[in-house]
Structures are given as structure tokens and as C-alpha cells.
Amino acid sequence: MERKADRVIFHVDVNSAFLSWEAVYRLAHLGGRQDLRNEVSAVGGDIAMRHGIILAKSIPAKKYGIRTGETILEARRKCPDLILVPPNYGLYERCSRAFMEILRQYSPSVEQYSIDEAFVDMTGTGGLWGEPAAAAGRIREQIKRELGFTVNIGISDRKLLAKMASDFQKPDRVHTLWHTEIVDKMWPLPVEDLFFVGPAASRKLHTLGICTVGQLAGADPALLKLHLKKQGEVVWGFANGRDVSVVQAEPPANQGYGNSTTIAFDVADASTARLVLLGLAETVGARLRAAGVRAEVIAVGIKSHDLQYASRQITLGNATNITSEIHRYACQIFGRLWDGRPIRHLGIRTGRLKDGAAMRQMELFETADYGKLERRDAAVDQIRRRHGIDAVRRAPFLQKGLRIDHMEGGISREKRSVDYRKIDVK
Asked: What is the pTM of this model?
């Protein structure tokens, strides 16, 4: 159904992105003949490194009930012959950049929503690319022809509805969901298909007898707020197609920076935990400095071996982006927070950001030379940018056989690249 609208918004979503990108790379660059997208296959982390979950799956794997986020062991029980390939985030980032470059050929207003999806404001581009469905078809075919993978494109006059439309029948499809079409196309859907309705909210809604998006749209907002708090009002608005958000080509400024890591072994002593925190402070500090900001709040989170989580934060007298200072405060928080249980996961996050040029208020008995520490960090950052992150390491990380990365957190090294010489690519 074509129509003229005040706004035209596309939501472009790569089909099974990680698996598709791996499949295309093997076919186009490694001489592979087996298309993983047509096999019972999945991308999964390394069990030995405690990242053993399914990150993406093929459509044939979906027929076995294999779900994103479940453990590799669970997936193997459902299908012992599952083809499992390792994650390769370096490849994903390259594919994502190429994907976004094509979208920007059609509109200057592209909002990258995640590594594999984006909103595109196509308002007023009809003279260049034709009616919305024709323009979407053109984008879809260009991506397939030039990059080798497929996308779904949802078209609407509202971002929410465009995203909903892109989740309709897959793969390699274009769907519309104009505001005038929500009664026919969206209201019959299961309520859990609505954006922002997760498993917990879905269970509560089913308990209330609300099983479809249409039933949610017709429900009493006060009842929904009573059972789901603020989320109840939000999802009621979504069910009725209410959305005034705009495509933001420039991402909003971060409110904080942080990193966390799942450790390859249970940490049972404080000295090892402090070393993990040092690796995290390195990456968090580098991100703060790259953004030209300092943090006034530092928090530490701990997940124990039994998956119990605890966190605590402190507010500093002076905002900082100095690695050693972040580490010092993180260790103080850790000492007050840790109850002695073996640790599986550690994280540092920061908040209440200040301009990086802000002056430091001197303390009466302070002996540290913060200017010198800042210059040292700046020199280390410059060397790592020029020669790689391993060009400079702190002395504690030079221990032989150490299983802790000197730049902890974020996407771990084993997920950033794959040594295909060790893999039988079919």
C-alpha cells in the first residue's frame, strides 16, 4: 500500500547479521562452498573463556528451537549436529561500516541504532529515489549486490512503526506499516512482538488477559501503570502507534563510560581482582580521555560465581580520567563491596561527566603530581594509537602465563579476529 506522508522513515535491519557476515566472508574471500545461512548453524562464544552463548543463528537453526542468548550446551542438546562458528567482531565492524556507507548514499540523515540496524529519514527524497517501496527495494538490492548479505526494510511515518515493520516476514523483504495500517497489521500480533515488551512484561500482560497488541492498545492505561509502572504507559502508547521521536544523524553524547569482563576463571583473591580492575581502568580511562571528558562518579560491579550481582559507587571530590586514579578508587570500592565469594565478572563504570579541561581543586595534603600523571597517560595513548594497544603495558601484566588482559573489557581479543588457518572452511 503506497501513500504520501509528511514523514518517511526506513528501518533497515541485516538478516542474521553475524552469521550472514561470516557466511559471505567465507564464500567471497576464503573459497568456501557451504553457505552457513542455509545450514543449521550459529555464531557462538568460547565455552572455555566463559562466553559460551549463541550470538546469532540461521533460519534452519531456528526450526530446532535454538535461540539467541542461550548457552551453547543448550543449543547442542537441541541439535547435536549444529555447525558452530566463532565470533569475529573485527569482521562485523567492517561489514557494518560498509552497510552504513550505502545507506548514507540515499539520505544524509542516518541513525545507526546498533551494529546491524539503522533508521533512515527518507522524507523529501521521492524526487531522487521514487516512492518509498521502490526506494527501499533499490537499497535492498544494492546491499545484496555489493555486500552479499540481505536486509529487511520497514517503512513508516514513525520510527517505532518502521522498526516493527522490519520484523515482519523475513528474510530479504520490504514491509510498510503506516499509522493507518496498525489496526490491520500490528494489532493482531502477539503482545510480546511489540517493541519494549520483554519476557517479564509479557507474562504480566498475559496474566491480565492481554495477549495481542490490539488488546494492549484498548486496555486501561491506569491498569497498565498499576502493574507495569512507567513501562505500562509507554507500551500502551507504542501499541497505539504513538511515537514522536526523530532520526538522529548525530548520536547524543554519552552520559558515562564503562567496561566489564567475564573472567576466564573464578577469581578468589583480592590481588588478582585488583589486577583485573587495573586492566579495566586502562580501557575506561582511555575512553574518557578520547572523549575529552572526566568522570566525577566511579562505580564497581561484581558478579560472583553463583551469578549474584552487587555494585557500589562513590562521588569524587575532583573529576578524573587518569588511569591510576580510576584504579585507586575502584580498588577502594572493591574492598568495601567484595564479600569473599569467587568472582566471575567485574566491571567499572563512570558517570557525571565533566569537560576534560576542568580545573582540579587542590587538596591540602595531596602529594600526587596529577599533571605528570596526565602527561604520562597522554603519551601512552599516543603510542598505542600509533603502534597498537600492546605497544605499552604496565609492569604487573608482564608476568609469564598471566590470563588477564592489560586492556580488559569490551570485546575480548578472542572475539576480535579469527585465525582461519585453524578452521576447516567448507
From this structure: 0.85
